TrEMBL record:
One of its GO terms (molecular function) is RNA binding. Keywords: RNA-binding, Transcription, Transcription regulation. It comes from Cytobacillus firmus DS1. Oligomer of 11 identical subunits arranged in doughnut-like structure. GO terms for biological process: DNA-templated transcription termination; regulation of DNA-templated transcription. Required for transcription attenuation control in the Trp operon. This trans-acting factor seems to recognize a 10 bases nucleotide sequence in the Trp leader transcript causing transcription termination. Binds the leader RNA only in presence of L-tryptophan. The lineage of its organism: Bacteria, Bacillati, Bacillota, Bacilli, Bacillales. The gene is mtrB. This is Transcription attenuation protein MtrB.
């Protein structure tokens, strides 16, 4: 039997591939605003969750992102 998150919220895993990767949480509602920010250094991992307050997560820098939908990589600005 597959375990589901009881709140229905999705988790993502972010692994920094360089120092200074920014992870920014954005709010839900009529006005999208930043509500939380973290900076990761190379090799650090963050597990983030979409919640009733978080509708989007923005990632700046070179990182590996793992979701239930698959994996992708963000790139550093050139």
């Amino acid at each position: 039997m597959e375990k589901k998150n009881p709140s229905g919220n999705e988790y993502i895993v972010i692994k920094a591939k360089e120092d200074g990767v920014n992870v920014i949480g954005l709010t839900r509602g009529s006005d999208t605003r930043f509500h939380h920010s973290e900076k990761l250094d190379q090799g650090e991992v963050m597990i983030a969750q979409f919640t009733e307050h978080t509708s989007a997560i923005k990632i700046r820098g070179n990182a590996r992102i793992m979701t239930s939908y698959g994996e992708l990589e963000s790139e550093a600005k050139k």
